[in-house]
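As practice, study what follows.
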Amino acid sequence: MSDDLRPTPQPGILDISPYVPGKSGAPGSKVVKLSSNESPLGASPKAIEAFRSVADHLEIYPEGSSKILRTALGEVHGIDPERIVCGNGSDDLLHLLGQCYLGEGDEALMNQYGFSVYPIITRATGASIVKVDATNYAADVDALLAAVTPRTKIVWLDNPNNPTGTYLSDAEVRRLHAGLRHDILLVIDSAYAEYVTAADYSVGLELVGEADNVVMVRTFSKMGLAAARIGWMVGPAHVVDVINRIRGPFNVNLPAQLAGAAATRDVEFTARLNAHNAKWRDWLVSELDGNYMHVVPSQANFVMVLFPDAEHAALAFETLMQRGLIVREIGTSYGIPHGLRISIGSEQAMIGVAGILKALVKTAS
């Protein structure tokens, strides 16, 4: 059939490179997945129990505004639940923000090593994505501000940054915001906030409360509920109103709402996740950072390891894969061909990764 006799997508859609997730291994193979930044301790037992509790009521629609989950988030984080919107993963909310605030001829800015979903969201609206040079693999506030044009409508800021693990302090985020026009929406994507240990970091809640053009987006995926697909956003009342007008009417299923609420209130489990991650993140850095490999300082639940060149990175990836340890290649998706992103996993997994990579160093020297 001729191309002109079938439905065609909007201009630019077929120019978008689809998102490529981290490898998961072959079906039936015994592997340790360290490629998607999932929880090394599984999910909160309370969240699992809450998820199971609704199994006999799957025929009923969930409450449409995710009130159960918004109430729990409000209690634990000290937020007015009316300022919260929940979504089917944080990606759902990021797409909605792009759909509402970007259009043909607009621009969105991002750090050159920012989350690879931002260009997809932006281009799908007909807008252009502008990748701004980073400094030492971190977002550069001065460079971002210098890249602003009259067409700029959104600044995407993942903080900490995926895949580098770098972050901007609260002071730097505020400096970025202060330099933006009031009609530019600053989207602070705090997907890895649960794992940050830096004293000068802020998730962005205070700035959202003070400003009229800032939203903060979070996810439950990194704290044990990736399969449930739960995200949440805090923003000014006028942004919340806009997003609620177009989001799916039942966009968060009931098991996910209950599991998310239980996980939110299980602050002891979240603290255990943070402590485990901090211990083994610091340990892995101390084991790997050297002349052959350089580990970029991270505030997330992963580290980015840089090798002398792309060939050495590929060798490290394949060697780990052969030993049942799957990490994330970041050449194609993020433009760092000589790097690998390694999620923080169990004690056994971290010792295994360190041993294999250190053995490679000996072979190379």
Remarks:
- The chain has a mean pLDDT of 94.
- Residues 101 and 153 are 7 Å apart (CA to CA).
- The first strand starts at residue 32 and ends at 33.
- Residues 267-288 form the longest helix (22 residues).
